[in-house]
Amino acid sequence: VPVEPDFEAKSPLFDELLANALGEDEEGEAQKEVLQMAFGATLARTLWTYRKVLFLYGASSTGKSTLLDLLRNFFPPEVVGAVNPASWENEYHAAALAGKAVNMVGEIDGTTPIPGGVFKSFTGGDLVSGRHPTHKPIYFRCTASQIFNGNRLPPTRDKTMAFFVRWLIVEFSRPIPIDRQIACLADRIFEEEQAAVLAWMLNGAAKLAKRGSFPETPQHKRLIDYWRAGNNSALQFVMDLDYVELKEPPQPVPGMEAFQLYRQWAREVGVKALGRNAFYEALYEGGARLGVSVADDRNGVKVVRGIGLKKTIPG
Predict the structure, then answer these.
(1) Which is nearest to 228 in space by CA: 288, 157, 285, 173?
(2) Are 255 and 248 in contact (CB under 8 A)?
(3) Are the beta carbons of 57 and 151 closer than 8 angstroms?
(4) Partners of residue 250 on adjacent β-strands
(5) What pLDDT, in 10s, does the model give residues 202-217?
(6) Largest alpha-carbon pair distance within the chain?
(7) What is the CA radius of gyration of the chain?
(8) To the nearest 10°, the Cα dihedral for 43, 174, 314, 240?
(9) Whole-angstrom distance, CA of residue 266 vs CA of residue 58
(10) If 0-12 CB within 10 Å is exposed, 13-18 middle and 19+ buried, where does residue 16 land?
């Protein structure tokens, strides 16, 4: 790194980027701390020892790519990889990670499943193999920090907790208005504020080393629950905050209203909807950990408790 860290320097451009991307409320500050720890551990080359990968998740124009570009500037190009985890089964792609300090994927594949076994081996410090073209196989431990961007949770057939516990999700849910976007912002921050940003990252590495683990934010927990519910579209529906809010409403929601909005949600997100009875059964079986339940009212009509509907059903 070509500069000394300056722990007293100001970083107005960087601070505004984080404020716009993550907010300045309590939850936003908690996510900033996780990001600071992860970026610091990446710089210190210790992130892999925590068996965590950082996933910057959210819509476009929320600052994810700018942050990734900024972090990339702190590393020599030859130690930076860009191998999608869906490709780690390929021996050539695997070998490309040997000796890298960080692996940054600007847009993770939202359609190709991540192979759970290989993913857990690469991120768990196991001895793995790869091969460069025309060369013999090599064996190595992947010590690269893994940082991915994406606006979709990638598919996986691995439903084990050992897979999901590897992920560290920071949610970017605040698109930056066009009139507030700054061209080449990552380069400007690096040129003008790199000493302050370097200090910020080192402080994050120190916080993590002292704490020993990453804190869990509400956003991370909600998204992991949503991801794990990938084979239960009814649970995915009740965790989609654009349609549903998890709460204790004054009155239970009529089951048919919830089911009709679920069918609308399924059409709009492109998943196959369950039938009415299967929808109720899926909520009954998996809704308890979310505080959601299905029951019959006094007239024998199905009602759903623990949710409120944010959208109305057309017609």
Answers:
(1) 157
(2) no
(3) yes
(4) none
(5) 999 999 999 999 999 9
(6) 73
(7) 22
(8) 30
(9) 20
(10) middle
